[in-house]
Amino acid sequence: MTETAAGVVQSVDWLAIAPPTIAALVALVVLVADLFTDDSRKAVLGWISVTGLALAALSLLPLLDGHRSTFCRTGRSSVCSYTADHFALVIQFLVLGGALLAALLSVSMLRDARSGGARRARGGGRGDAGTDGARPAQGAGPDGVRNAAVGSLGGARNTAGGPAVPDGEFWFLLLSSAAGAALLPAARDLATLVVALEVASLPAFALVGLKRGDRRSAEAALKFFLSSVTATAVTLLGASFVYAATGSLYLTEIAGRLPHVDGQLHTLARAGVILTLVGFAFKTAAVPFHFWVPDTYVGAPLPVAAYLSVVGKAVGFSGLILVTVIAFPSYAHVWGPALAVLAALTMTAGNAAALRQQPTRAYSAVRLLAWSSVGQAGYLLVPIAAAGSADDPEHAVGSTVAYALMYAVVNLGAFAVAALVARSSPLNRIDDYRGLYARRPLTALLLAFFLLCLAGLPPGVIGLFAKVTVFSSAVGAGLGWLAVLMAVNVVIALYYYLHWTALLFRAPRTDARPRSDGPAPAVPGPAAPGTTAPAVPVPLTAALVLTAVLALALSGAPQLVLRFSTAGLF
Amino acid sequence: MIDISPSVMQALLALIVAGPLLGAATALLPPPPGLKGASPEQAVLRHGVTVTGAVLVAAVVLALGFDHDHPSTMQATTDVNWIPALDVRIHLGIDGISLPLLVLTALLTFLCALHSYAKPPQGPSAPPPRAFVALLLLLEGGTLASFAVLDLLLFFLAFETVLIPMYFLIARWGGEGRRAAAWRFILYTLLGSVVMLLGLLLVGLRAHTFDMVALATDNGRGLSTSVQVIAVLAIGLGLAVKSPMWPLHSWLPDAHTAAPTVGSVLLAGVLLKMGTYGFVRIVLPIAPDGLHTFAPYLAALAVAGIIYGSLACLALALPSAGRRPSSGRFAPRPPTGARGDLKRLIAYSSVGHMGFVLLGIATMTPTGVNGALFANVAHGLITGLLFFLVGAVKDRTGSTDLDTLAQDAGAALYGRAPRLGGLLAFGAVASLGLPGLAGFWGEMLAMFGAFRPADGLSRPAYLTYLALAGLGTLLTAAYLLIVVRRVCMGPGRLEGTGAGAAGGGPAPVLAELPDVRAHEFAAWTPLVALTVLAGLWPAALLGLTNPAVQQLLAGGPK
């Protein structure tokens, strides 16, 4: 009896699953604690969440040897559902770190929203200020700068009599999504993968639509939700095809059985392989699954957009890597070219669209970051595509991991600066960054550095070398055409990144009309015109400093991330 | 010449590469107490002079300590592992090929810093000089690094480092049309250099090393001919854009015309050399078979560049046909694209001169490559001087347009500013290759190499190129002499020369111009002296390059 029980009831390696578990537990803690905190002390929730994410990231430390796995099949310890190998650890670190930085940005956003909401409640805001985001700021009046990524949060629904973004729910959703995203890279069977994908995505829809009463936010959430659900459904279909063809859900078993699939099931298996990729390609925002990106980023609160651009992408490409390299290596001739074409389309479409952004349009900064993140997704896909024809696919995908780490740091840094600028210029146009150097020299230099890292030009050394590894994976796999196309794309991308960078150092506009950061509804405390920029809240500063230090350290010692491009991760 | 221990040499080279970068970073910080100077602007410009001066001193000491008996060996080498994942090593070293370029870069940048100190950079919307100095130093660091590194990926990094500073130098301190010119410069060169990266990666991945010395020693034996052909095509494209080779030169005239004086000097004097240096250092020894395939085409394009450059210059130098004599003393500059712009003319002449360099490389003979390297340095000295001079003319007259300057009869610089006019004439005749000055030897040797190209290259084709290049020298002489006649000569007030601004004579035809000032004199004298020295004593330079070139062609440095 006990023997049977021991055979059925598995022993769980709690240490191995600590990272996603801690995140999930803290999510519940926050949800419960929300009930017992009064409105004036909601900030505590934010700090609990930040601490929780930091703890989850720290819990990776004991796992560093990378040999733990749990939830294995009885009797066969090599077939497991959860494996904390080096790949899983790196991606978990990336996900939790990214969520931590996004949480830091959120802390100050929520605080601004609260104070803004309080002010508005006193002043009696205008509830009907419309959704015309392109309207110049000065027409909107002191209280009416609406729909801004940050500024509108407070006053969107004064009738509700409180902050428009509910703190407890916000933190719960963010942590749940992070837990799902941390689970995904360690998942080693298709069911767990899909579940993790959903756990990471479902809270994200709610996060995007969390700005109560904001029509743009709701629309973005709906768009995001519908297209994501479709993609996940297709993935499920694909997974079921694969299951039907191979009779297993475990990735390693699928890999072993796919080459020996019955002749008549070949078409089924092939269709299953392709369809499975769809859901992950969607999360990566690969063309043609990218349409949700710009509207979602603009509609979502800025920290959520930052979160999606880094953690959402990490979910997508780590899932792609797992299914392609671990589960379907025998179908490399199918997914390799498919992903290569996908990468080519994605980078070209993203960069071309980013090129067309009007700097004077409302939210153009976020829009540009959104489209550029689509372009960057294309670069991320290149090594995975190269893995299809490389001798050693597990090494090739290391370039994606290295690139993603670089991208996460500098992109979150750029978003942090955007969040900072959004505090004074809620419309967040690229034009609002003109002359930033004169107002905040250090911030401007940092943004310039982040943008040049994204562009891959010195002094953004880490960006350059990350691109070099991606190029080198493509050249090594003989994908010359893709490498040349990527080269052209790098040049296109430089145009808009450098354009933005150059704008930072221009002389500020000298015309008489008040700049949109004059009235500054969301800025706590008096922002006297003519004096230096208002003080930056501590969490935002922390996020900026963290990303800046990381990016600079990586530029000095690129080996820190680039070593993943050669080390075997699995 | 003097004995310096290897570790000191090592430290010197490391200082030369890292110093400007550190200087660029510190330029952004507020000046330390005690070094504040008269104003922050003055302090930061002085900082630029100090750093570039220190680098120049280090470079000169390095050149003195260089073992001139063994110029083909890599000296002052450092080899540190930096990014093992990509096999990138911080491998520095100099030999007879890179040493002259290193010293030239340090010298020109120092002179530019000196020039800016005396005459702070200005522009329509110019930001404070702090940014200028930081960018100048970053640019210097990038160029010096690209001549000192011996690792393909590090070379690429250095190659890319110069783009951003040069972009901002043109876009923020430039003249008319600066923004478009800056964009064209950076997009063009970036496209070229990214394609070059693909070629470098192909070489490195196939040969399993990115080390230039190892690859050069291997001399292409580890690479199949088809790989070499693709690699040369890709790498050559990037280098050819930078060099620039006709027909990929079209970014150059605009960039030069729009750039501030300092930017033009560095662009012509230093940046273009990175392209030709890459050909000699990377393409020639690492993929000889591939270059062998492309050499005739390279030579043909080089000669086309020579002819095209000189014809373009001739068209610019001649008075424009539809020009009516204007009554005003200095007619306002035509709104768009002044036809006879002097800076533009020198830019096109650079296309021609770099054509000689490329022709020399394309012969794949020691003579030709030596000529190419000599012409490289000579062009840096002479064109740097010419851009300084044209900048001075612009400061004085407010224009660089030949038609505006010369009016109908000539600008008469000899009469109005005799020293300036004399120097301009000196620069022009040095540029056209007068024997006894630096411009002569390089072009002569390059053409000499074309007379007997390497085995396997079609001799009749090269003889044709030789003839055409010879025609090019004639055309060059023609347009430069026209420029001298139109700018330096003319109905000036000859009796008022020498003594200068006595100002009491008969009504002058053209206003007196201030002659060469002290700081200008200081900036130009070294260039003039070196031009004469290199012309009279070419062995000093050839003695350095020749053994190294022989080694490269035969199988790399040891």
TrEMBL record, chain A:
Molecular function terms, GO-annotated: NADH dehydrogenase (quinone) (non-electrogenic) activity; NADH dehydrogenase (ubiquinone) activity; quinone binding
One Pfam family it belongs to: Proton_antipo_M
Broadest EC class assigned to this enzyme: translocase
EC number(s) reported in the record: 7.1.1.-
Annotated compartments: Cell membrane; Endomembrane system; Membrane
GO terms classed as biological process: ATP synthesis coupled electron transport
Keywords, alphabetical: Cell membrane, Membrane, NAD, Quinone, Translocase, Transmembrane, Transmembrane helix, Transport
Catalysed reactions listed for this entry: a quinone + NADH + 5 H(+)(in) = a quinol + NAD(+) + 4 H(+)(out)
Transmembrane segments: 14-36, 43-64, 87-110, 222-251, 271-293, 305-328, 334-356, 368-389, 401-422, 442-466, 478-498
Role of this protein: NDH-1 shuttles electrons from NADH, via FMN and iron-sulfur (Fe-S) centers, to quinones in the respiratory chain. The immediate electron acceptor for the enzyme in this species is believed to be a menaquinone. Couples the redox reaction to proton translocation (for every two electrons transferred, four hydrogen ions are translocated across the cytoplasmic membrane), and thus conserves the redox energy in a proton gradient.
Family indicated by similarity: Belongs to the complex I subunit 2 family.
Protein name in the entry: NADH-quinone oxidoreductase subunit N
Biological source species: Streptomyces sulfonofaciens
Gene: nuoN
From TrEMBL, chain B:
Residues of the NADH:quinone oxidoreductase/Mrp antiporter transmembrane domain: 151-315, 341-452
GO terms assigned for molecular function: NADH dehydrogenase (ubiquinone) activity; NADH dehydrogenase activity; ubiquinone binding
Keyword match Repeat: no
One GO CC term, this protein: membrane
GO biological process: ATP synthesis coupled electron transport; electron transport coupled proton transport
Keywords, in A-Z order: Membrane, Transmembrane, Transmembrane helix
Database matches in InterPro entries: NADH_Q_OxRdtase_chainM/4 (IPR010227), NADH_UbQ_OxRdtase (IPR003918), ND/Mrp_TM (IPR001750)
Subcellular localization, as worded in the UniProt entry: Endomembrane system; Membrane
One Pfam family this sequence matches: Proton_antipo_M
Entry's transmembrane regions: 43-66, 99-118, 144-170, 182-203, 223-241, 262-284, 296-318, 345-365, 371-393, 423-442, 462-484
Record's bilayer topology term: Multi-pass membrane protein
Family from the record: Belongs to the complex I subunit 4 family.
The protein, known as: NADH-quinone oxidoreductase subunit M
